[in-house]
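Re: adenosine-5'-triphosphate structure - here you go.
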Amino acid sequence: MSILKLQNLMSNDIAKRSFLSRPPEPPASILVGDVLKSIYIGTTKVFQVPFSWSFTNLTNPHIAIVGITGSGKSYFVKTFLIRASYVWNSNAVIIDWAGEYKAWVKQSGGKVIALGKGDYLNIMDLSGMKPLDRVKQIMTSFEILTDISQFAEQRRLTSEAIEQAYTNLGFVVSEPPEKGKESPTLKDVIALLEEKLQDGTYEYPAELENTIYRLRQFAREGEDFFARKSTIDLGKLSESGLVDIDLSGLPDEKFRGLASLFILQTLKEKMRFEGWSESKGLKTLVVLDEAWKIASDDRSDAITIVREGRKYQFGLIVASQNPTDINEAIFSNVGTTFILRIKFEKFLNYIQGTINFSNFIREEISNFGVGQAAVEMAFQTALRFPQTFILEKIQGETPLYVYTVNMEGAISESELSSNVIQRDYQFEREELRNKLIEYNVSAEGIDSIFSSMDESGRNPKMLDFINVLFQNGVEASDIVLLLKSMSIEDSIITRIIAKAGVRNA
Ligand SMILES: Nc1ncnc2c1ncn2[C@@H]1O[C@H](COP(=O)(O)OP(=O)(O)OP(=O)(O)O)[C@@H](O)[C@H]1O
Ligand SMILES: [Mg+2]
């Protein structure tokens, strides 16, 4: 056994390494915020200090969240938004690529805007902007999402025709519009180009035809989500409490991208227009979850919001499974990064390179459980403590268990893709449990229904769902009631019940 001998030693090097003078967590004075002005996130791993987030000392209020699927990114976002609305009365706009948030937003009393499922956005709407600025924005969106920048003539034709459509309706392109004046739509733009083609005097008819073809993709009957009068008051988007822009009903990534860019552009204009505000806290949070194209392109307004957001109390929250999908300008400028579990060496290298944490933290990150996170904060002034620390767990609100029943197999593919019939129906676990109790299903029956749905990854097919209900004692008449409560139309209910072969004894 060795003998421990104490001795005095004077060394700056060793003092710097000393655990007691440089703990692996920022001091409590930094971690613990005023409950009325900060957002509680969870306790730290080493000293179990309750960490509450505020951006007062940070370079800006923006947040990046990275982590593998299921690591808890969306859960964190939900928790954060709810608390921000309590603490600062913050509004939030979620650009919801996969429709992940809609059930939760509904449950939280927010508004869901379902594009492609009854809601429309006219991308030519001005919400107070000068037409010329809107023309530029529309062209930027087309450039990000299509290869139009390689076709100078088509680019010019498109931009001119959009401008012309405004002029024809009496707008002055270099001036803000009169209040309440209705904007043209892409259909008017296409009509102008078609007229020009009919006219026969334009010297490159093939260019003109291609231009028309490009625009028609966004204006075809049934896919004219951006070429009709808006069903949303865009000017009010950033001040309407919790708003979910559900993009899952749009046919493909290009449509989702166009919607996201348009919404970001509108929010950015609104932010600049409202100007600097003295109020503390955050007025509006904009969430981009898995919208990689939008978060990665240099020309996207996500970057403008990151650069200018602080002075207008606008915060951007970007979440992604893949940190390399987040533009450097965003990633290296956000005030806070939450790193949840990451497995891939490539991604770990990238983050460690940008953020500079220790190998110890890197090792921890690759072994995190659900909800565990490393937090990195960029302070306005240089401080003498590590800026990356570990949270035992993000302590959120009780998770909502949402099931999504899928119509595939119950309804023909052609009907589903024509968008007349909704593809997915969602409900929440407790909501369904209460209904099953109402229908007198036994406790075992209820358990068996839930475990079979959990096996399907909470995403059962409609016919299987109906059969599982029936086999576990739900009567056909109650299944009909349940489907009605999911707002499925009567005629469709009759069809799918017949197809499932379910009948009362
Ligand atoms: N901090 C937490 N505490 C308790 N449960 C959590 C926590 N974080 C996540 N969960 C649960 O883990 C599951 C996956 O979380 P979540 O949907 O947030 O993952 P994600 O990172 O957004 O995944 P994806 O990339 O697939 O969207 C959810 O059921 C959620 O309720
Ligand atoms: Mg998610």
